[in-house]
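P.,

For your records, the input lines for the assembly:
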Amino acid sequence: MTTLTDDVKDPATDDASHDGHAHDDHSHDDHHHHIPKGISRWLLTTNHKDIGTLYLWFAFIMFLVGGAMAMVIRAELFQPGLQIVEPNFFNQMTTVHGLIMVFGAVMPAFTGLANWLVPMMIGAPDMALPRMNNWSFWILPFAFLILLSSLFMEGGGPSFGWTFYAPLSTTYSGDSTALFVFSVHIMGISSIMGAINVIVTIFNMRAPGMTLMKMPMFVWTWLITAFLLIAVMPVLAGVVTMVLTDKYFGTSFFDAAGGGDPVLFQHIFWFFGHPEVYIMILPAFGIISQIVPTFSRKKLFGYASMVYATASIALLSFVVWAHHMFTTGMPVEWEKFFMFATMLISVPTGVKVFNWVATMWRGSLTFEIPMLFAIAFIVLFTIGGLSGLMLAITPVDFQYHDTYFVVAHFHYVLVTGAVFSIMAAVYYWLPKWTGRMFDITLAKWHFWCSLISVNVLFFPMHFVGLAGMPRRIPDYALQFADFNKWISVGGFAFGLSQLIFLALLVKACRKRGEPVSDQVWDGAEGLEWEIPSPAPYHTFDTPPQIK
Amino acid sequence: MEQNVKPKTSIDEGSLRAAPNNAKTVTKLVFVVIGMFGFGFALVPLYDVFCDIAGINGKTATTAAVYEPTLIDESRSITVDFITRTNTGMPWEFSVQTKSIDVHPGKLAKVDFYVRNPASRDIIAQAIPSISPGKAALYMNKTECFCFNHQPLKAGEEAIMPMTFFIDPQLPDEITYFTLQYTLYDITERVDEPVSVAMNKSQGR
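Structure tokens returned:
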């Protein structure tokens, strides 16, 4: 354990002691021992923990920005008729809300968690490519600056939905489309660099004895996610490039008049888009697989089957894209293929859900905050999964297509799925990061307010969707008024609940609260719980011994 | 202090061992990224290939077929409906002289389409065909079609556009009836040629 304790020092006090290191034999990596103060620490950092923190704060800010846009949407939909915003601005809100939540909140949050945790979990001193790591974070704010600034341009920002279907994005879009395309390019480059970093780290930097099948589930799910990212983000880059050239340079990839086909856009987009939704949920599976065993005080049930299930979900995600476009007209045989392939995904997903439940079965359960979020995840994600199964059924999808039922489905898997898992992860590892327990009272308020309001927000959407309310429309028929009022109330409550989270995080970062032990949670297992709390600036300069 | 008793060798070995490995792994992954970027573009021709093979999407051939008066299947006749429409913002009047015909597979048939440009500007049009059910598109052979070329009309002009076709006798028995739709698009802005030059029917390009 001497190797583990030799870095027991707070980043803040590290500067004082670095002089002692300056003339020792480690001068070749002496950047390890200088922590610049102030803004340049954050601008120039190559430390995986700093970059993880940057990613997480960035994601949280984007979550609040995207959430504010959702508040605009819900305010407009509070009652039928047009009262608060122009339809064109409403469309910009739905578009940018989607883009920000997908590319600005959920994906960077997972990358931030990967930065913090993957090296600590596999016993590596840092990410494999620390400078690229710095770059992949710091281009991200510029991407979103470009996207958000387009909202203030003449003609407004992108208003064609986050899926930017042609010809909406090619023929009928404003000039901000160029900004949209470039910002998506930058986001794509950022996540590709992040993914390459994760893969190289996991392949090359594991401590001796850390075999693949000994890796924690979070590392496994991120490894598979990273492969999905490098496989499909380039396809997204390709399709936005085609939109750009169709709009500005006279090509006709998606223009029937020039021999192209708008339906081709949907095929290419969803070839990216479906793996993308698993990019946003596989790391969540990893997080839940870490948390549930800790608070059940049992080993994860069916570790190997979890690994294989994750890999199968990832492979299947490449052959189901056309279930997003059943109504575009396809041969019946193809619709059947995509329907059955989609339903097949529920098998490995079911394996995971049953494994989590089996892990809890007869465990000594306790219900700390991370566990509350994890259990809420399991229940509510399963609801989202089941509505997904309903949408997979081709003939039924003809009715549900483009209704609020779809909105309910993907918010159950993305908000109560991905976002809840990120919150669970933050509550689970925050004491390890800060060295102190967060404010449990605030956390309980945050959990219960979020849990109740999120269901008031999204559950009634199933009903208005089944009754035929179309999505992405700023007005609706009178019979949907009562439900929409409830949905909006739930939306505002959910939005406000996140301010509790903000208060809690600010408090935690100011190092308030009781100091915690190295293990933090009794029952927590893994390398990250063997290093001191708070996690020292540098960990595992010497590889740990893996039993 | 304890801080100086780190076993240095393990760090050095570690970094020496890791460095070339990382470069190799990164190179491989970058190739995957480039390959997938290319794959995104490869989907464009692949899409057409798949539609051709499967005979979906109702796209007919874009070049003229050669008519060989071999077998005419007089045992059955196929009903072909014609629908004409213009894209949003396209001002032309566009109609078909014969709304529906019955034709034996293998027999040559001719249909005339009427267009008029009521606008006060010269317009170049492109007609895009679409057949429903899509499978029939594989058996639709056009020997002459206005859709193979750009169609220019000066302001106020009108024209008759002919289309001759025969249905492949291999047409599956279950198809007894199909619809051919033409949509006219205004492509004046994407074509550089002046209308007067294009008027002599010297191929659109």
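Two observations worth noting. Chain A has one domain: 2-10+43-529. Residues 2-10+43-529 of chain A form a domain with the Cytochrome C Oxidase; Chain A fold (CATH 1.20.210.10).

Regards
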